[in-house]
Every structure is written in structure tokens, then in C-alpha cells.
Amino acid sequence: MSNLAVLSLGGSIIAPDKVDIDFLSKFNKAIRTYLKEDKNNKLILVCGGGAPARVYQAAYRQIVEKKDDNVQDWIGIKATHLNAQLVHSIFNDLCSDEVITNPSADIKFTNQVLVAAGWKPGFSTDTDAVFLSRRFGGKLIVNLSNIAKVYTADPKLDKDAKPLDNISWTDFRKMVGNEWVPGKNCPFDPIASKGAQEDQMKVICADGRNIENTLNILRGKEFYGTTIG
Fold first, then answer.
1. What are φ and ψ of residue 116, in 5° steps?
2. Which of 61, 81, 118, 190 sits most deeply, having the most CB atoms within 10 A of its CB?
3. Which residues are bridge partners to 205 per DSSP?
């Protein structure tokens, strides 16, 4: 029985404005340490778009008068492919399969690491993480971004917003709503949240830049973050 976890690696930590080489180097070392601890440890790394998505989507919005949500989504998706290919190359010896860009296709998972990217318009890579977790029998998704905890409201807009240690799917979904908007900034996207709730998955949102904290989550130790579910 494998110890499978899905890490949804936000583009905000892979490439916040440019590729964060320092973070990826430390992440690479830490993940290899974790995987060596037990040959049954397996990880699916789902990569977000980050700066490339943001910059190219912004360019599209400035140039084109009549915006198309699908086009904006596709630009973001292609950015996730770029980031995922980089992450795949870093873990090449532990990841024998190609980057997954369609979680509904015939997928092999033949080594300890599987790397995935965006699929199609209508949701973010959070939803891809849910698809892949469901496919391989995972129940834990660790959503790593530049946000340490989920708040009761957007702390940038509401000074009374409070950080949460735990929140139910019902309450969380009331906060994020049910519809996806390209470029939407929320802790876990609405479509992914619906799927995770249906499958009774646990999602932990944490600051991915704190790599020791990520290892604590994977090892079942005390961590700093928000548990949804």
C-alpha cells in the first residue's frame, strides 16, 4: 500500500515573478529526503502557472478588446505546462512518466513521482489535483501557495479577517462560491472544492515556501496551515 499525497504546487511559489531557483533547489532536496524514508512514499506534483500565466493573460487583456474566458484559461494552462516540464526535469530520475496534461487519460504511475499540469478551461490546477487524487486513491491534497492559512475573508480587503486552523467543506464552499473565473485568486478553486467534498478528501492549505512545514504535513506531524474537510 503506497503512502500517496498530492501536492498542488502553486505557480506563486514556482515562479512568483521569475523562476524561484532557490526554492526549487531546496524543495528538490527535501522531497528526495522524504521519498528515501520509505519506498512506498509517492507524490503527485500538480503545477500552477504563476508569473508566466499572469503576465501573458494581462497582455491578452490589454491587446484584445473583446475578451474570451476560454482563451484566458488556455494561456494560463500553457503556463502550467511550462512550469510542470521544469519540475519534471528536476525529478526526472524519480518520475518515469510524461507530464500529465489530461487526468482522465490512461495514466501510468511507475515511479515515486508523477508531475501534472493544467488540463482544460473551466477550472484551475486544483481540480486536476482532485481528479488525480481520486484516480489513484489519495485522500490528502496539500495545497501549497504563498498563503500560510485560509482566512475568514480576504485579509487585504478586510482588516477583521481571521486565520483558520480548520474549516468544513460546507463553510469553505460558502466562502469561495460555485463558479470558476480565469485568474481567480482563492485558496482552493470552487470546482475542485465541490469534487473534494464529494470524495471526502482532506485539503491542507499552507505556505509552500516553508519546506520544513511541508515535510511535517507529509510525515503527519504538527504543522502550520488550514485543514479543509
1. -135, 160
2. 118
3. 143, 226
